[in-house]
Amino acid sequence: MKYGVILWGFLALPSMRYYLELNLTTHMLVQIPLLVTSGWLVGRKLTSSYFEKINRNGIPGLLVGLFTLLFWMIPRWLDASLTNPFWEAVKFITIPGLVGVPLGASWFLLKPIARGFVWANGISMLLILGWLYLEAPMRVCNNYLVNQQEYFAYNTFGIAIAIAVYWVSVAFYGDWKNAGKR
User: Fold this and answer.
1) Averages of pLDDT over each 10 residues, the chain, 182 residues
2) How many distinct structural domains can be found in the chain?
3) Which domain holds residue 111?
4) Could you tell me where the DSSP H helices lie in 14-111?
5) Treating both helix axes as pointing N-terminal to C-terminal, what angle do 32-44 and 59-72 enclose, rounded to 10 degrees?
6) For residue 54, is it within any domain?
7) Do 141 and 23 contact (CB within 8 A), yes or no?
8) Is there a domain that residue 66 lies in?
9) Rounded to two decimals, what is the model's pTM?
């Protein structure tokens, strides 16, 4: 839990915010996932009878996290977080608090098929997001140049393909770490 708070504090430093928000790729593929991770680390340790009661099977927490993440994928709000300090603060509160914490608290409550569903949708979401940024006839985010959008698109394609190859190889070949042990 403390590592999540430390990570969040590190990401909130002005110099780190500036560096990570300098281009679209580091903003969306480094800063936002690290903010989710900081909340995830806190959410993994979140145990209370009330929270477990309302988060039965992990589905409510998963839905809260995914809908909040979808909100922050809209380029309008990403731009707002760069130009308006209020939206920057909202981003630093909602991404860890409404994405990371619910996902961290819910992930291991989910059945394996639900986790697979989340991974499959995450891969397709990355591919569609990359395609949107690559094929857009104009700048999608006003604070970033078109070449940064293209670079971001190719990076999302690469990440989606890497995740897909990993999960397909695990599905067909099993766990590589324990492959030679019997």
Assistant:
1) 91 95 94 96 77 82 92 92 96 96 89 90 93 89 91 96 91 67 51
2) 1
3) 2-173
4) 14-20, 24-26, 32-44, 49-54, 59-72, 75-83, 85-94, 101-106
5) 160
6) yes
7) no
8) yes
9) 0.89
